[in-house]
Amino acid sequence: MSLLSQHDLGRVAFVSDSVPVILPVNYVLDGNMIVFRTDPGQKLAEIPMRQVAFEIDGGTESNAWSVLAQGLAREITNAVGMRYEALRDVPIPVQAPGEKVHWIAVDIAQLSGRRIH
Predict the structure, then answer these.
(1) What integer pLDDT is reported at residue 45 of this predicted model?
(2) Number of domains in the chain
(3) Closest to 37 in 3D by CA, of 114, 112, 105
(4) Range of the domain at 95
(5) What is the CATH number of the domain that holds 60?
(6) Is 77:101 a contact under the CB 8 Å cutoff?
(7) What is the pLDDT of residues 28-72, one digit of tens each?
């Protein structure tokens, strides 16, 4: 969780038409939720209400690491409730062009990682 909270660029993985897809997203970790924004398109069409994987990695030649989070994704753009409203107030840096008006939250159910020395 510490590594997830220290970074803001990761990859979300899901299955679309029986084919694995992995796409980069800017994100923020808030509690047990990974939150990112997106525009209409493949992520918005395929990810909500499905199990997804989310991965980050980094390191140097002598010390590498990776973190894998898995859980249920939900679109929270119009979700009602204080928790969802608070998540939508969290600033998420966005590098890709577009307004990114749709919010997706992944509730982490499983978390694993590894370090390679």
Answers:
(1) 96
(2) 1
(3) 105
(4) 2-116
(5) 2.30.110.10
(6) yes
(7) 999 999 999 999 999 999 999 999 999 999 998 889 999 999 999
